[in-house]
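name: query_chain
kind: protein
chains: 1
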Amino acid sequence: MKTSIQIGKIMGIPIRLHITFLLILPVFALIFANNPLNFGFSDVEPTILKYGLGMASAVLLFTCVLLHELGHSYVALRYGSKIQSITLFLFGGVSSMEEIPRNPKIELKMALAGPAVSLFIGSSLLVIHDLLNTGSSYFRLIWLIGYINIILAIFNLIPAFPMDGGRVLRAVLAGKMSYINATHTAAGVGKMFAIFMGIFGFLTVSTGGVWLILIAFFIYIGASEEDKSTEINIKLEGLKIRDIMTKDVQTVTPDMSVEELVNLMFKSKHMGYPVANSSKLSGIVTFTDVRNVPKEDRHTTKVSQVMTKELINLNEHEDVVTALKTMTIKNIGRIIVTDTDNDKMVGIVSRTDILRALQLRE
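structure:
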């Protein structure tokens, strides 16, 4: 099941809406429509205008979040980073970047670009409101979006992952210590901030503190994941796929029965095999592909009927980090490894291989 839908591209970057965004958008519209003066339109008549302004506020808010993320992406593209997508979801937006530059100066510029965009939008709208305000509900909308963008810029500069302030803090620290130690320190600050926010949210749960608890949870998880992923990437640096791949690869034929395949899996303790007819690869089959085949049908069902035909392969000279990222993005457990010309299979690399290499590096 897809959790997000693509609505277009900007600067060549796919823009996606997560299912949580689609669920929260009408909620935000209702909140804005029923909030009191300045922060909503509860006093506006007729009712259709009130809810129209509420929906406009929600759409404009998330549009500004998108522009915030595009600010990060623009700077990243200028320095050669590849942006896979920007996704709008429950708590805002996320730019999916192949790799964050280790250069502290570049990371600092990237981290500050988003809040700078929000600050520019917010201050511009507030100036327009002050200069041209006629007292109509539409100018209240301009003030509201401007004010929220200022808050968005300030909130994102809190020194805690996954907010921009966490990356700013890491960039500053990385100029004085190793990148991994800077990440550990910045993540630790983020976790402590999340804990204090969660405690405060718990003490004020009767007055809306539940939102603070949710945000605190989001920050804590984000800081932990950033810390762990950075540590893994650094420990795997310099390691090539050819150094850890399994070279003696056993293949299965397309006409093998699923029952025979399951018996082979139990015997060899491998959960995935390339499928080859003579010397030509036609797919890959894993335990995930066969586990839903009823036991009584396994002897009549062929591997060709359940295998994955879309082959994902990497060159043996690619970095192990690239393999790990590909597995994560594609949600797969193993990748076929090819030679320099990409026309011959020379091995297979799995998550288990990467985990073993990581343990040895540690």
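note: Strands lie at 4-10, 13-18, 83-89, 92-97, 272-277, 280-286, 313-315, 334-338, 345-350.
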